[in-house]
Amino acid sequence: MTDKTNVLLIGAGGVGTMAAYNLEAGGQASVTAVLRSNYSAVKVNGFTITSIDHGFVKEWRPTHILHSVPDVSNEGSPIYDVILVTTKNVPDISPMVVELIYPAVTPNHTSIVLLQNGLNIELPIIAAFPTNPVISGVSLIGATETSPGHIVHDDRDRILVGAFHSPISQIPEGKSIAAAKVFASLYSASGKVSCTYDSNVAFSRWRKLIYNATYNGVCAITGMDTSRMRMAGFPIEDVIRPLMWEIWRIARAKGHELPESVIQDMIDCDPWDTYFKPSMQQDIEKGNFIEFENIVGEPLREAEKLGIPAPGLNMLYGLLKIKQLQIKESKGLVILPAKGDPTRPMLQFIKQKDVFLGPDCKFEAK
Ligand SMILES: CC(C)(CO)C(=O)C(=O)O
Question: Does the reported pTM lie above 0.80?
């Protein structure tokens, strides 16, 4: 038995692996990582990490690695104090985060930390796990898995951690706040990263959306990184800055008074010389699904509800939806009729649902 906090990591790409490494470096957490595409590589060789915060690390493995999410109702299974979710949030593709973590959650005990981008990501989680603290993690790290098990971490790990609140939660707000503070101290224990308790999670998420809802989508569609856009100038002035102002106006209508200076801060926030590709651009390049619903779709739906015009965002959303359809087709999730065959329907989706389930998703509460 150990008195360390038992953490289950789901999503061991760049961000997740660095979080796991940092938690274990602090000496207070024992991490079990669920690996998928990199499982075999990491089992044999461990992770090779080149990190701006932690230096060069070879053959590192978290305390345990698993190939699938454990079911804590199995006899003898350990229970997890924290589930740290660092997967992409792609609610239009199954399995959604709720489905993924369902077997590993112990009601009334496990804190669920969503270290993920986007808006309203907590709603289906709180609905499914109303007795668990659900914690927001807003990350500013630059970390990429360049090949299976190889991580390049070149922009410092800074995270904001706070409690999500919702009237449907069945635990007092104070309990979620306490759980968020406990996680923030666990994450800070290494002394190598910046982890701050965040008392206004919604504000921080809207602030970060100024970057994610604009750069992520535009870099993904055009294939241009953020440094090149800044060097050329016109991609920023013609496309990025106007989109940022749209998000800023929606945030203001929601009651979040972001300073005007946030626009320039976000434009310039990536180190100039890293030719940084936001995660959505990296996903498109790898042929992965893109997390555009919570990053672009949700702020757009908020704008529609509030009557705030967001034509640029609307166009970007449409383009990203087209990209997602192409990715679905490339993965065999869409069937097209043969050329010249009038008897088959126009377009068919197989295996996966093509609906945005998002916050309205009904998953039986645990
Ligand atoms: C913080 C940043 C820019 C890198 O992790 C990000 O959120 C993203 O690329 O999606």
Answer: yes
